Amino acid sequence: NKQCLGVDVSSYQGNIDWETAKNYIDFAIIRVANFNSSDTFLDSKCEYNISECKRLGIPFGIYIFSTATTKEEANQDCSYLFDQPPNSVSHSYTRVMLFLRYSILVKATSF
User: What secondary structure does DSSP assign to 34-94, as a single string?
Assistant: First the structure.
């Protein structure tokens, strides 16, 4: 069984040296946005991180961080990625995740 090493990245990591990182990781999970009850905050480094992973052939997925407290809010937050994706995201091969800040039950949905 091969173990894989991945990284979770966002603007908090600043400018990542992806040329170096590619030698140590198998994949990246890139934050696209942060949702709360009143606003959406796009991650300022998501376009850069996505374009670098594409350029270097690093497999990646994207995620949004949500403060949803109901199933409806969680579904609305998920829909954002499909209605208004970042310019560099291709739905054909990108994995999408929703990280929930609060513990709620959300039925898995296939897009």
Answer: EE-SS-EEE-TTHHHHHHHHHHHT--EEEEEEE---SHHHHHHHHHHHHHS--TT--TTT-
Q: Two tokens at 80?
A: 């954002």
Residue 4, judged by CB atoms within 10 A of its CB (0-12, 13-18, 19+), counts as exposed
pLDDT digits over 17-74, tens only?
A: 999 999 999 999 998 887 766 677 788 999 899 999 999 999 988 888 877 777 787 7
Determine which helix (DSSP H) or strand (DSSP E) holds 21, and give its type and residue range. helix 18-21
Handedness of CA 19, 22, 27, 31 (dihedral sign): negative
Strand partners, 62: 30, 96
Residue 98 sits at φ, ψ, to 5 deg, of -125, 120
